[in-house]
Amino acid sequence: MTADLAEFARAKNVKYFMISYTDLFGGQRAKLVPAQAIADMQKDGAGFAGFATWLDLTPAHPDMLAVPDPDSVIQLPWKPDVAWVAANCIMDDKEVDQAPRNTLKRLIAEAASDGMHVKTGVEAEFFLISPDGKTISDEYDTASKPCYDQQAVMRRYDVIAEICDHMLALGWGAYQNDHEDANGQFEMNWAFDDALATADKHSFFKFMVKSIAEKHGLRATFMPKPFQGLTGNGCHAHISVWDKAGKTNVFADNAMELGLSAKGKNFLGGIMKHASALAAITNPTVNSYKRINAPRTISGATWAPNTVTWTGNNRTHMVRVPGPGRFELRLPDGAANPYLLQAVIIAAGLDGIRSKADPGKRYDIDMYQHGHTVKGAPKLPLNLLDALREFDKDKSLKAALGEEFSSAYLKLKHQEWNSYASHFTQWERDHTLDI
Ligand code: ADP
Ligand code: MG
Ligand code: MG
Ligand code: MG
Ligand code: MG
């Protein structure tokens, strides 16, 4: 990696830089800057009218400057004239606290001050659909149990292999690709990394998948539940904490239950304690709540949790401990903001470690079959409004994420809920017309 973007441009024949920041709703906003102008932009940042994106700002605010982080630069494998670089938002010479990448960087620094180095991996599922967004794109992909469908993944080989080749060329440690549990759905996996690197890769992955799909005349969606009755798009997160140098996994302890150390248990305890509130960030849209709490899909399972419970290697709970030294949070969905997803996990986990939180009883039952036998485990929020209210009630989580961020997020998300609630639907006509 080079610290000097102008030098990077000369070495790689890059003509344009895409200086990109992510807003509160996960939208990636960019300016395309010619290499001739990158030296000044690297110093001063690219100017944006922040209020025109999903940030709680007004037209009266001064310019927001997106200052590129050269460590994140990636030459687009499918368009090498251009390089993408993640940026940090600055206004009046100060970090914009509500900007998601700044929020994550603050939490990473806080973890580091407690001697912790968080490493994560994400599984960002997606559908390949028709360009109009109405149907899946492969008319032969109709099996009632399509998970790992060999024939169907090969019909999309040109798209999937092109993306995987790019991840390999970028050195991400891509290791498997499959057809997932819904018709038209895929998952591609690469190696875990530091939380900030994973968030940048997650953002770039979404950009890349959409771009390659469009190149092939298709459309890719990460929408949590794009089709009724089909399994939704999850974005499971795998989490481990390492020592300051990032060399020793401090979550690993083979003498402990499931190989998870006391520290790992406490971090998990924080996730359990804040689960209903953090759903406002891991499951951030109206549509998210049709993936969790879902009735059975035609494949036989939803693959998504509805209760705050944890377990060993069992896919019916909110948290799974698949092996020693890490756990998997199965709650997040494809709409989760890549930076806020990592930030809220660290915020909840740090609180868990500081307060020595107990994750509670572990259940090894099939939650889909026998969940009714579990007494006292909280249910996840049933809709976005409930989740926002839970988040608003959770003072310590809000404080950990920062007051400016939390109030901006709640304000814009409540506006989104209100817009949804005032929208007239066919359902209400069907159920109310003849009342
Ligand atoms: P599954 O579908 O069984 O949940 P995947 O192989 O699809 O598993 O995804 C596992 C993810 O977990 C990958 O991103 C992988 O790199 C990541 N992972 C593996 N070990 C760790 C670890 N110690 N810490 C954080 N992430 C990890
Ligand atoms: Mg202008
Ligand atoms: Mg997976
Ligand atoms: Mg999956
Ligand atoms: Mg998983």
UniProtKB/TrEMBL annotation:
Cross-referenced NCBIfam families: gln_synth_III
Q: According to the UniProt record, what class of enzyme is this? A: ligase
Organism in which the protein naturally occurs: Mesorhizobium calcicola
Identify the residues that the record assigns to the GS catalytic domain, covering every copy. Answer: 100-435
Q: Briefly, what is this protein's role?
A: Catalyzes the ATP-dependent biosynthesis of glutamine from glutamate and ammonia.
Q: What is this protein called?
A: Type III glutamate--ammonia ligase
Q: Where is the GS beta-grasp domain?
A: 12-94
List the Pfam families.
Answer: Gln-synt_C
What Enzyme Commission number(s) appear in the record? Answer: 6.3.1.2
Q: What is the lineage of its organism?
A: Bacteria, Pseudomonadati, Pseudomonadota, Alphaproteobacteria, Hyphomicrobiales
Molecular function (GO) terms for this protein are: glutamine synthetase activity
